[in-house]
Amino acid sequence: MRLVVDLNKCQGYAQCAFLAPDVFAMHGEEALIYDPRAGEEQRERVARAVAACPVQAITADGLDRTGGAREVSDGS
Ligand code: SF4
């Protein structure tokens, strides 16, 4: 999955790093580093991070900003 963090919006609250530590990490006090191509196994955690970010800075494909974790089915 692909994700983008708008670092102009990001205030370094670290909610995302707490909820999805394999994808997001704080670098110092305020700088966020993240994996823009997180694995699919991270989807649920990323969904929680998207929902938890106080400034809606995280956008991820297949996830909306308000729905939190959404069931993803490929129909198989
Ligand atoms: S939760 Fe949002 S504001 Fe906080 S560090 Fe993550 S992206 Fe930035």
Task: Please give a handful of descriptors for the protein shown.
76 residues, alpha+beta, Alpha-Beta Plaits, two-stranded antiparallel sheet, 4 strands, 18% strand, binds iron/sulfur cluster
Put the structure in a nutshell.
With 76 residues, the protein is an alpha+beta fold. The chain has helices spanning 15-19, 43-52, and strands at residues 3-5, 24-27, 31-34, 58-60.
Helix and strand arrangement:
Elements: E1 3-5, H1 15-19, E2 24-27, E3 31-34, H2 43-52, E4 58-60
Antiparallel strand pairs: 1-4, 2-3
Protein name: Ferredoxin
Pfam families: Fer4_13
Cofactor: [3Fe-4S] cluster
Identify the quaternary structure here.
Answer: single chain
The description of the largest β-sheet is: 2 strands, antiparallel
Quickly count the helices. 2
3D shape: globular
What is the CATH-assigned architecture? 2-Layer Sandwich
Termini separation comes to 19 Å
Q: What percent strand?
A: 15-25%
Order of helical and strand elements? EHEEHE
| Overall radius of gyration | 12 Å
State the low-pLDDT regions, or none.
none
According to CATH, what is the topology? Alpha-Beta Plaits
Ligand inventory reads: iron/sulfur cluster
Category from helices, strands and their pairing: alpha+beta
Question: Helix content range of the residues, please?
Answer: 10-25%
What is the spatial order of strands in the main beta sheet?
Answer: 1-4
Strands, total number: 4
In the residues, how many domains can be counted?
Answer: 1
CATH class: Alpha Beta
Mean pLDDT: 87
Cofactor: [3Fe-4S] cluster
Function: Ferredoxins are iron-sulfur proteins that transfer electrons in a wide variety of metabolic reactions.
Keywords: 3Fe-4S, Electron transport, Iron, Iron-sulfur, Metal-binding, Transport
Protein name: Ferredoxin
